[in-house]
UniProtKB/TrEMBL annotation:
Domain of life: Bacteria
Organism in which the protein naturally occurs: Roseateles aquatilis
Protein name as annotated: Uncharacterized protein
Signal peptide: 1-21
Keywords: Signal
The UniProt record lists the keyword Signal: yes
PROSITE patterns named among the record's database cross-references: PROKAR_LIPOPROTEIN
Amino acid sequence: MKRIGLAAAAVLLLSCGIAQADERVTTITPDMALQLRAHSASHGTVGARKMQMLYAPTLEDGCTSVYLYADDDIVMYATLMKAVTIKSTFVLIYDTAPARRGPWGDPLSCPLTSVTIKL
């Protein structure tokens, strides 16, 4: 029984490592040209409804923007908006896994997983 528990823990740790392998980190500085886009709840493409996007020049691995759904991640959305509006330096972590890119059909948009403001 103990071996099964250890094996399950090893699989869990391995899975976490694989998930993190698809994440990238970029720093956004106040002098960078950014573009914010917000889609309404009545957007014609269902997968884009209530979605927010940030286009940034420092994204990697074929990502030109990061996205999140404000309703699902209200704290992260508020943190992102604060970072952009106060023109602070901030760090984004985003997922580059092909299966998670643009659920509405845009392979250049990657899901945002973290925002850190450098105060």
